[in-house]
Design brief:
The protein is mainly alpha-helical. The protein has one domain. The protein has 3 helices and no strands. It is flat. The relative contact order is 0.09.
Length: 89
């Protein structure tokens, strides 16, 4: 079960967005938003921690480091833009 935690959290995050798109009940939408935020806040750092821990055992280390570094930078930029867009309003 421990192996599938990341996949399960990604699925919960995606499915909560899909359910939020088709629901009309405001209270239910608040619960879905809370589930989405919690699952996303947990799964994104979990993904990058696992990825950065794996680099010593890779055969093509420098390409892996470049790719994971790019992923990390892009994710942080996207999160920063999201926070900025929410705070600036």
């Amino acid at each position: 079960m421990k192996r599938h935690v990341e996949g399960t959290l990604w699925a919960i995050s995606l499915l909560s967005l899909i359910v939020a798109a088709i629901t009309t009940n405001r209270r239910f939408l608040l619960v879905i938003a809370i589930v989405w935020v919690l699952s996303t806040v947990i799964v994104i750092p979990l993904h990058f921690c696992k990825a950065w821990r794996r680099w010593p055992e890779m055969a093509n280390r420098w390409q892996y480091i470049a790719w994971v570094g790019f992923e990390t930078f892009a994710a942080m930029a996207l999160i920063g833009l999201f926070v900025y867009s929410v705070v600036s309003r």
